[in-house]
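Lab notebook, bench 4. Continuing the backlog of folding jobs that were queued last week. Each job is logged with the same field layout so the records can be merged later without manual cleanup. Today's entry covers DUF916 domain-containing protein, a 351-residue chain. Filled in by technician R.K.

JOB TYPE: sequence-to-structure
TARGET: DUF916 domain-containing protein
LENGTH: 351
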Amino acid sequence: MHVRSVVRGVVGLVAAALVAPALVIGAPAAATGSTSAGAAADERITWSVVPADASGPDGRHVIDLELQPGERATERVAVRNHSAREATFALSANDGYLTDRGSFDMRPSSVPAEDGGSWITVPDDVVVGPGETEVVPFEVVAPADAVPGDHPAGVAASVRSGGELQVESRVGVRVNLRTPGEVVASMKAELLGTSFTQGAGLLEPGELVLRYAVVNDGTVALHTTSQVRAESRFGGPAVTAPAGEALEVLPGGRREVTVTVPRAWPVGPFGVEAVVGAAVAEDGPDVPVPADVTLTDTVWALPLPHLLALLALVLVGWAVRRTLRARRTRLDRLLDRARAEGRAEAMASAR
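JOB STATUS: finished
OUTPUT FIELD FOLLOWS
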């Protein structure tokens, strides 16, 4: 009875060990902003900013402008006040960049413009009545020593709200400035790391994760793509990552990319290869594209849950064997004692 209880308990632990891993869960639009100037709901200010011509919004989402060095041009944005009271919007221009998620943004107004943002001169502010739209002209002047290539910038309308701690809410329009000439399309790529994630259950594959960074060290915007392939060092079919969308990288910009390779079984070391390529936008200059960059690494995909399950089975076998051996030893002792008592009783009867 004792042996059965021990075996039943150990088998229960093995079942729990086998089940537990399975339970582990592994066109741009018109920019619109909103801010509250006070506690009352009717004091909330909402507004939008879009490209415009002299008569109002012209349907563009981005302002594209090509200027020779020293050339000047006038562009416009329409600032619409969607709120129920008059509002004064501060206007600013600055250099543009892409966030980690790939959305366009401007450098903070407290940071002086160094590139395309310094080409733009905007009025200090504009007053817009409730429900009304004001067209704001601004001047763009390319410096005489402008470097051929792309110079991203933006124009924004903002409102400050709050008490002693002022909060600036800003809405803007992307301005793509370009100077024609001999541009350079160039990029660098660096590997940031690779890792393996086990699947949800023992009988499910995991996934390989590769992280890399792309740096645009040229003078024209690029769209980058990658092809990632992984192959086990012990043989077996190779696995590849599905094709992803092309990522825009502005001149001087850096983007970090994470690529997941699904259906990778934990069979030891994998050789991972990522081929990073780049192309110039369709409306960009006709220049040679940068050469592809190949990144390689080795990542260990260890079957830890499987090894733990095997260890549990080994411990079960060892526990059962030890229990059976202890039971056999106890029975042998009882038999030896019974034999000894029998011989003693026989000798006593013979006397």
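OBSERVATION: The chain has three domains: 1-26+306-351, 37-179, 185-302.
SIGNED: R.K.
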